[in-house]
UniProtKB/TrEMBL annotation:
GO terms under cellular component: cytosol
PANTHER family: QUINONE OXIDOREDUCTASE PIG3-RELATED, QUINONE OXIDOREDUCTASE-RELATED
Cited InterPro entries: ADH-like_C (IPR013149), ADH-like_N (IPR013154), ER (IPR020843), GroES-like_sf (IPR011032), NAD(P)-bd_dom_sf (IPR036291), QOR-like (IPR047618)
Domain Enoyl reductase (ER): 11-322
Pfam families for this protein: ADH_N, ADH_zinc_N
Keywords: NADP, Oxidoreductase
The name this protein goes by in its record: Quinone oxidoreductase
Keyword NADP assigned: yes
One GO MF term attached to the UniProt entry: mRNA 3'-UTR AU-rich region binding
């Protein structure tokens, strides 16, 4: 018998209900996992609220870690007893045990705890594709990272700095500056739409940045475009303050032949090969000290609503995990 969070309708955190369920035996290509650690991400909140539609009723959650307790036919990549983690679907990570496709599991090294894996894998793979595929950040690149004190931003800044970039961070309040600095930023700005572009110009000797990483969306999109050098890349990848506005494409021409993309983790991990290769890069980055998994708060699975409320109301200061 397992316990799992299920949603039968979308809405406030209270729509998440803790239910008992029988697990079937794993089918071909599947394993059964006993989970000890579950990562909480803003996408979970969007799906629970209905801002990102999911078929109902549904489980929730896209990131977990635990131990393989049974394997289905044809599974050879993992065996019973292996410690593993995953990021991405199928939905249903908020559970004490679950079935999961074997080819989307990542074997964990002895040096990485289940809790740390659940804090770093989803956000780490996101940072990996944003830096290495989307932005192609290299020595000498200059990047502007919003949410630099957040769970993902801390990893993004640390990795960008390791790659040799000049990293400028943006936070929403003074209390977050020290955390952004500790994550590797060379300079940190408290967001002000009126002054950000000139602060960025000053910090880059008038050149402005090669890449803006903006997950904030509605409140920051216009200011972000003004922080880019000619032919710079605007990466809009979240909606913390609401969806970014519709874009008149002529604006990209007028502001210096800018590039614009709205990337998703799903499109960068669609094949098992690509997903596994990015995950390996994250585990290597942790092993070599480029990334340090940090947990801001752990909640019991039954308290998932409290975790969502923290994330939704901007109270969190890093990664949140759930423990069944
Ligand atoms: N597209 C993808 O592939 C993908 C994948 C993963 C995550 N995401 C997105 O990435 C974002 C961050 O995720 P997360 O897990 O790091 O969430 P998080 O821990 O809640 O971080 C969000 C951060 O945004 C900051 N913030 C809010 N308003 C701001 C503003 N006006 N200017 C600068 N910073 C501001 C907050 O900083 P303060 O501390 O300063 O308030 C907070 O630290 C979310 O929007 C998420 O949906 C996208």
């Amino acid at each position: 018998m397992a316990i799992a969070i299920r949603v039968h309708s979308t809405g406030a955190p209270e729509v998440m209900q803790l239910e008992s369920m029988e697990l079937a035996a794993p089918g071909p290509g599947e394993v059964c996992l006993e989970q000890t650690s579950i990562g909480v991400n803003p996408l979970d909140v969007s799906q629970r609220k209905g801002a990102v539609p999911i078929p109902l009723p549904s489980g929730l959650g896209l990131e977990g870690a635990g131990r393989v307790t049974a394997v289905g036919a044809g599974v050879s990549s993992v065996q019973v007893g292996d410690r593993v983690a995953y990021a991405t679907g199928p939905l249903g990570a908020y559970a004490s045990a679950r079935l999961f496709p074997a080819d989307r599991l990542v074997r964990l090294p002895d040096t990485l705890s289940n809790d740390a894996a659940a804090a770093v894998l989803f956000k780490g793979i996101t940072a990996q594709y944003l830096l290495k595929t989307t932005g192609q950040v290299r020595p000498g690149s200059t990047v502007l990272v919003y949410g630099a004190a957040g769970a993902l931003g801390q990893l993004l800044c640390a990795w960008a700095r390791h790659l040799g970039a000049q990293v400028l961070g943006v936070v929403s309040k003074p209390a977050s500056v020290a955390r952004a600095e500790a994550s590797g930023c060379h300079a940190v700005f408290v967001f002000d739409a009126q002054t950000l572009a000139s602060q960025v110009a000053q910090a880059t000797q008038g050149r402005k940045v090669d890449v803006v990483y903006d997950p904030i969306g509605r409140d920051t999109f216009a200011a972000s475009l003004d922080c880019l050098r000619p032919r710079g890349l605007m990466v809009s990848f979240g909606a913390t303050s609401g969806l970014p506005p519709a874009v008149e494409v002529g604006v990209l021409n007028a502001k210096g032949s800018l590039f614009l993309t709205r990337p998703s983790l799903a499109a960068h991990t669609a094949s098992a090969e690509e997903y596994q290769s990015r995950a390996r890069d994250v585990l290597d980055a942790v092993a070599s000290g480029i990334l340090t998994p940090q947990i801001w708060k752990s909640y019991a699975l039954a308290d998932a609503a409290l975790a969502h409320a923290d994330l939704e109301h901007g109270r969190s200061q890093g990664a949140i995990i759930l423990n069944p």
